[in-house]
Design a protein that fits this description.
single chain, alpha/beta, 522 residues, 6-stranded parallel beta sheet
Length: 522
């Protein structure tokens, strides 16, 4: 038996025994020992093997599975440029402490810097963006490596021969144990302030909705959530409410608690900046956002020694401005991107998994959706990229009965290669097609010379024809009524709804009109 086969079998056996259930593989030659071992393990029903032909897609696909399962998800590739294609997903995983285990096959160390085919410097290629990086040709102990959070890289030097004999006894006697996450001790704090507010970033810093709601209740504080679809009691339309300086001044808190990162709304970040005392709660302060500061910081949600009674006048003040923000939405056109977001948020069935792409769609949900609960929401907010969004949604769908993804047209086209081998899981992708980068029309660069070419980037493509080329089920909608009908249909696998929207400039004008109307109501 070759050394490469022994190392590969040892790693795959350990993964199974550590409770790993999903592995993502991209085909190649140098990773053959791992690929064959994985196939044998899948044949015995010991794990689920997902084959993705594009390593960039594979990285985001594994990221989606990790988001949905909370477990480490290995991604396996061959040597050379294949490894580098993991980089975007690794950066995203680094920023959000996602559990990716990168198993990259390499040539023996003696071949480095010799001009050998498909050989480069893969050891430590991901630098500080992984928690641990190991370069080895020998068996390793995985148990002590997978005892934390965040991406890990194991670069495996496989020398020939790469193929095994026919023996499968190495999979006998498997005993599975579940990995446990490290626990932190929560601090106990006291507070005497009454005008408190809790602001929650989109991923909630990994904390449950219930724990955050308990903290808000103990503080007697309203909740402002970048993801209003997880907090039914959250303040609605907060980005609009806080877009006017007069509202920010009237609603100035005594204590402002930020959970996670607030990455979407400039108005909410302006509100945070104006608070006299800010507390930040985020486990990433320990390893990722180590330079982030506030008046008070915590890695864990603290316990409140003296729960504070609710100040009704404080809640009434927030309700007053919330009502005015809601009134300003009356100026929206019947068919626009804001109403698409609001319609989707309202009509999704409970327990549906919802993935929302970065750029304009996620901001529309934050600003225009009515708060509710019972959805399982996801987004790639670590670095807020538009790459890998289809792949991430496909990965999430492997762990949910029903998944919906909302993507802008550029995000959709950016990851179009993911459609070459979709899963059989139930996933509906709703594409907001406004022929380009709609978010730029809402930013200051809108009036710059050459705007459309260097910012708006109209693609001019017929998305329906592109999707048809992949032989994927699809339809086009051009109104709220048509969207409503399309969302009622049940599709067993991948289905794509293309929402043909008015021009990007018209959408930007409608958002500007909402802000103008809101200011007039104050």
């Amino acid at each position: 038996m070759s050394i490469a086969t022994n190392v590969a079998r040892s790693i795959i056996r350990q993964l199974i025994e550590l409770g790993i259930e999903d592995v993502v593989l991209s085909p190649g030659s140098r990773n053959a020992p791992l690929s064959i071992a994985l196939y044998h393990a899948e044949e015995k029903g010991l794990l689920r093997l997902h084959v993705r032909i594009d390593e960039r897609s594979a990285g985001f696909f594994a990221l989606g599975i990790s988001k949905a399962s909370g477990k480490y998800v290995p991604v396996v590739c061959t040597s050379g440029t294949a490894v580098a294609n993991y980089y975007p997903a690794v950066l995203e995983a680094h920023q959000i402490n996602a559990n990716l285990l990168l198993l990259t096959a390499d040539r023996p160390a003696r071949l480095r810097r010799t001009g050998s085919n498909q050989t480069t410097l893969q050891a430590n290629i991901f630098g500080e963006f992984v928690r641990r990086s190991i370069d080895t040709a020998a068996p390793i102990d995985l148990a002590h490596l997978l005892d934390g959070v965040g991406p890990i890289h194991i670069n495996l030097q496989f020398d020939e021969p790469l193929l095994p004999d026919g023996a499968h006894e190495w999979l006998d006697g498997i005993k599975v144990q579940q990995l446990t996450k490290p626990s932190r001790v929560a601090a106990t704090i006291t507070s005497t302030t009454r005008k408190n507010i809790v602001i929650v970033g989109h991923d909630r810093a990994g904390f449950s909705v219930e724990r955050i709601e308990k903290l808000a209740k103990d503080l007697g504080a309203p909740i402002v959530a970048e993801d209003p679809l997880s907090f039914e009691s959250a303040v609605a339309h907060a980005p609009i409410m806080l877009s006017d300086e007069r509202a920010r001044d009237a609603l100035k808190p005594e204590l402002l608690v930020v959970i996670g990162r607030t990455t979407l709304s400039r108005s909410i970040n302006a509100y945070i900046s104006g608070a006299p005392y800010v507390m930040v709660i985020d486990p990433r302060l320990e390893m990722v956002d180590t330079a982030r500061s506030a008046a008070e910081t915590h890695h864990e949600i603290p316990n409140l020694a003296n729960p504070i009674s609710k100040d009704d006048s404080w809640f009434e003040l927030w309700a007053k401005y919330e009502s005015r923000a809601a009134q300003s939405l009356e100026s929206l056109p019947e068919w626009c991107e804001a109403r698409v977001a609001a319609t989707i948020a309202q009509e999704l069935e409970s327990d549906t998994a919802l993935f929302i792409s970065s750029s304009r769609p996620i901001r529309d949900f934050e600003a225009f959706a009515q708060p509710r609960s019972s959805l399982v929401t996801f987004a790639n907010r670590g670095l807020a990229g538009i790459d890998g969004n289809i792949s991430t949604a496909l990965g999430i769908a492997t762990h949910h009965d029903e998944t919906v993804a909302v993507l802008g047209d550029l995000a959709f086209l950016h990851d179009i290669s993911a459609l070459t081998n979709p899963t059989k899981d139930a996933l509906t992708i709703i594409v907001i097609d406004n022929d380009g980068g709609g978010i730029f029309s809402t930013l200051p660069q809108r009036n710059q010379p050459g705007f459309d070419r260097i910012f708006g980037t109209p693609h001019g493509k017929d998305l329906a024809k592109i999707v048809a080329g992949f032989e994927i089920s699809h339809e086009i909608v051009r109104s709220v009524k048509e969207l409503h009908i399309a969302m009622q249909r049940i599709h067993p696998g991948l289905h794509i709804i293309i929402a043909k929207m008015p021009h990007r400039e018209a959408n930007a004008d409608s958002i500007a009109e909402v802000s103008k109307r809101y200011s007039m109501l104050l």
